[in-house]
Specification:
Elements (H helix, E strand, L loop, with lengths): L3 E4 L2 E2 L5 H12 L5 E8 L4 E8 L1 H18 L15 E10 L3 H18 L4 E5 L10 H5 L2 H8 L21 E5 L4 E7 L4 H11 L4 E2 L20 E2 L6 E8 L4 E8 L7 H14 L4 E7 L4 H14 L8 H11 L10 H4 L1 H8 L10 H9 L7 H24 L8 H36 L6 H42 L5 H26 L5 H33 L1
Parallel strand pairs: 5-7, 6-7
Antiparallel strand pairs: 1-4, 1-5, 2-4, 2-5, 3-4, 8-12, 8-13, 9-10, 11-12
């Protein structure tokens, strides 16, 4: 698996496109960096940039962006609605794949050391990278903003983690950290009043509001035994929020940072704002994502809104995303383009690898029929498995919507969700099987002149053949789960669809037998006898189980057909 880490620097410039272009060009000049998103805001005078790459590439790209921002942005002249303290205000690292927290924290330290030493910008480490846990919270570091730092930084408690203990007059101060996915999320209200938007923000944010003696904002603050104001907690954990007015849209918003999307997902934040607004005579008319977000956020939201509609959650990813976008009004202010805003889709779009799954049916068949050996039987077997579980999911969805079967909705919905997951995994394996074949061909194409080259070529061929055998084995393991799904649909599903279950069973069996052939042929030339023995033993058990499970389910289908 490729090491991939995300970096999301926030630059204190959102109005001058040329300045923004120069900063992003500096980031892109680092080899191995993929720029995913650039999201400027005129009212906030701030641009959120998202890019990914290997840890080394991303550290280099971030340094170049920070350096260019320091050259072009003068914080003495900066103003905007968003709190800020530096030309590069924050620069967090977020692990994406095969990157540990230790590695992400090391990235933050490496970058901070360079920024402090080479650019003479004071740097504070925050979130998981914080050395001083009292300064882990970004809001604590940024309190007082740029204007307060000339005096604040001289205090012993505010000595920077890296760089000089004096304010860089033009570049300000920067916070660099390692954190979980943070989603900058704004909910639109049908008002221009910042005060009313703040009321909603105080209702929902974790920090809530200061308690007063009469329960009104104008009341006297209630103090604890230490003389500190007592706070009334808000509805949502891990949420920071304020209200502001956005001139370019002519509306007020509740602007939120969701810092733990597992505990407080996107859809929960939207509904909380909508409920609070409604109690105050307002309405949440829509929302917007600033920057990018993981696909899971919208998939979870889509299922949540289908659940609220008392409908099956077993929809395709594309449909779930569309439902989430419509339900939360993500396109109210400007079109929400999933391929540009969802991290995984943007990375996939930038991939140079050709995807078979992206072809239409005719193109796929034409590609298979051509004189190229790939895609071949392995990819076709995985596709048959995907079609098989899709038929099972179709019956589950039809049964979930059948009038008079409302009590069984959750059961059928869960099965439809399972079918979608199996289908997506098998479609991924369609491409992976061809990638495995290409890896074998590439190994055979290596030079073999010297003894070292011959040894390297032999090792590469052995490794590629192992991979090429493991992929169809994974196809079998995944497709085998379709038997339980199809058997249950034969027992409980809409009887009008029993023939669809039968076709699904035949397709699962063909998938498994076809993939088994691919396992065997790729094991044929392996020298590692132990590896070959282990895979053959596992393969035999899976194929034997497949036959008995197929017969049991087919007998049930035949009985219902007759």
């Amino acid at each position: 698996m490729e090491k991939l880490i995300e970096c999301v620097p926030n630059f204190s410039e959102g109005r001058d496109p040329e300045v923004i272009r120069q900063i992003t060009s500096a980031i892109e000049s680092a080899e191995g960096v993929s720029l995913l998103d650039v999201d400027p805001g005129a009212t906030t005078n701030r641009t959120v940039v998202t890019f990914v790459g290997s840890p080394d590439a991303v550290v280099e790209g971030a340094f170049r962006g920070i350096k260019k921002a320091a050259e072009l942005i003068d914080m003495r002249k900066h103003s905007g609605a968003h709190p800020r303290m530096g030309a590069t205000d924050v620069c967090p690292f977020v692990p994406v794949s095969d990157v540990s927290w230790d590695e992400a924290i090391a990235c933050a330290n490496r970058l901070a050391a360079r920024v402090g030493e080479e650019l003479k910008i004071p740097v504070y480490l925050y979130e998981r990278a914080a050395k001083d846990r009292a300064r882990a919270n970004l809001a604590v570091i940024r309190a007082g903003e740029y204007e307060a730092f000339a005096a604040k930084i001289k205090q012993p408690a505010w000595k920077p983690d890296y760089g000089p203990q004096s304010l860089n007059q033009t570049a300000g101060v920067t916070a660099i950290g390692a954190r979980d996915f943070l989603i900058a999320y704004n909910v639109n209200l049908n008002t221009r009043s910042v005060r009313r938007a703040n009321s909603v923000a105080f209702d929902v944010r974790e920090n809530g509001r200061v308690k007063t003696d009469d329960g009104t904002p104008a009341g006297k603050p209630v103090l604890d035994d230490n003389g500190e104001p007592v706070r009334v907690p808000g509805l949502l954990k891990h949420v920071k929020a304020i209200g502001w007015y956005v001139e370019e849209y002519g509306i007020a918003q509740v602007s939120m940072n969701l810092t733990n999307i597992e505990e407080t997902p996107l859809h929960v934040a939207f509904d909380a704002c909508a409920e609070s607004a409604s109690k105050r005579g307002l309405r949440a008319t829509g929302s917007e994502i600033v920057g990018m977000l993981p696909k899971k956020c919208l998939l979870d939201a889509g299922r949540y809104f289908l659940r609220k509609q008392n409908w099956s959650e077993g929809a395709a990813e594309e449909e779930l995303i569309d439902i989430a976008v419509r339900s939360m009004g993500l396109s109210e202010l400007k079109p929400f383009v999933a391929a540009e805003k969802i991290i995984e889709l943007k990375i996939a779009a930038q991939s140079k690898q050709k995807s078979l799954v992206a072809l239409n049916l005719r193109q796929f068949c034409n590609e298979t029929l051509s004189d190229s050996p790939a895609p071949g039987g392995g990819s076709v077997a995985a596709l048959m498995g995907a079609l098989a579980v899709s038929l099972g999911g179709m019956v589950a969805n039809l049964s979930a919507g059948k009038r008079g079967w409302e009590e069984q909705l959750r059961c059928f919905s869960d099965r439809a969700v399972q079918a979608q997951q199996l289908k997506d995994e098998l479609l991924r394996l369609v491409d992976e099987d061809t990638a495995a074949f290409n890896q074998v061909m590439a190994a055979f194409g290596l030079a073999k002149q010297s003894a070292e080259e011959k040894a390297a070529r032999s090792a590469a061929i052995e490794s590629a053949n192992k991979y090429a055998a493991e992929v169809p084995l994974h196809v079998i393991e995944t497709a085998s789960q379709g038997y339980d799904l199809l058997h249950e649909m034969a027992e409980k599903g809409n009887p009008a669809s029993i023939s669809d279950v039968g076709v699904g069973l035949l397709a699962v069996r063909a998938c498994i037998e076809g993939a088994a052939m691919n396992v065997r042929i790729n094991l044929g030339s392996l020298k590692d006898a132990g590896f070959k023995s282990r895979l053959l033993e596992k393969l035999s058990a899976l194929v034997t189980a497949s036959e008995s499970r197929f017969e049991a389910a087919r007998n049930l289908v035949e009985a219902k057909l007759s």
